[in-house]
Amino acid sequence: MTCPRLLPPLLMCLAVSACGGSGSGDPPAQAGASPPTPVAAPAPAPATGAPVAAMPAAVTVKQVTAGLSAPWSLAFLPDGSMLVTERRGSLRRVDPAGQVSAPLGGVPAVYAVGQGGLLDVVLGPGFGADRTIFFTFSEPDGIDSSRTAVARAVLGDTAISDVQVIYRQTPSRPGSIHYGSRLVFDRDGYLFVTLGERGEQERAQDLATTQGKVVRIRPDGSIPPDNPVFPQQAAVPGIWSYGHRNPQGAALNPATGVVWLSEHGPRGGDEVNRILPGRNYGWPRITHGRDYSSGVPLGEGTTAPDVEPPLHYWVPVSIAPAGIAFYTGDKLPGWENSLLVGALAGEVLVQLHLQGDTVVAETRHLETFGERIRDVRQGLDGHPYLLTDSGRLLRVVPR
Ligand SMILES: [Ca+2]
Fold first, then answer.
1. What's residue 9's pLDDT?
2. For residue 297, what are the CA distances in angstroms to 6, 67, 184, 225, 302?
3. Of 21, 105, 241, 353, which sits most exposed with the smallest number of CB within 10 A?
């Protein structure tokens, strides 16, 4: 289903609900929960934080496979094959021709409920020598409680081995939303982990938890001594930035070496952020988002001197941004200096045009495609690849 963006206000509200349009990117299974009540329309506002470019879509997709189940993340192996996580707990290999392997053995038990399960996967910086991969999952902890966990393991042909959990979000919480959970290695080999606020929004401002935080750790899970220092005595070691809601996309900017992320707003207020050490990204105090049911603005406002503003945001309708990737390939002319953002509720591939760290325009591709896009990665062949909630792996090619 596509979400027309230019609708009369009341229809707009209904369209948001019909799209399962929760900014939190709830899986389709949860989209049937009580929809937001249509209310008086918010005041007219620009659709995004930057002009929507009038450029027509210049790409289409070629299907690699449709044989996946709720795939969440994709990592390219040096031989051109791919590792794919499936949310319900399977890790599979997909060869370039689209052949999908049986689930690899050795994956730990995951809390595969709601948004939880087996989530991100990346290769370690030394993969060529040590075959080490890193992945995230919602780790069960008692009855109906779970936490985002980061593990490392050695990749074999049919199984992973030497699985070690190197980091756990604290505390474990009930419920099954907002795990965050993307992994990015920077140029120095530090591992950034995005952690959602688990639906407890005030905790994003509480440095005594790692809910709604980005943490920076070493590949063995230890905390680097040069992480930011916070004045609060109770601050949990490892925090790099805070005030995040549910960051489900992250990538290293190839021009600057700084981690960027996408995060879901509530009703409007999805963001792209550049993650700087020690900074507060505002949620839920400073946000462009509105309350799901009442439509009233949340928090204290949209800017504050002590809060890092987003580089880009979406209002009044959330696109529900998930995986992101900087495009550095040569297969799509004119796509240089772009950040690609997969949209769940929005069911589009968003191209943010960059000049330095500034988003100067937005183009929406695949608008009639009707797929929730969970992850975007650039392949070794220079093409973007997409994972959809319907189970497809797709290569983006010029039209
Ligand atoms: Ca923010």
1. 34
2. 21, 41, 32, 39, 9
3. 105
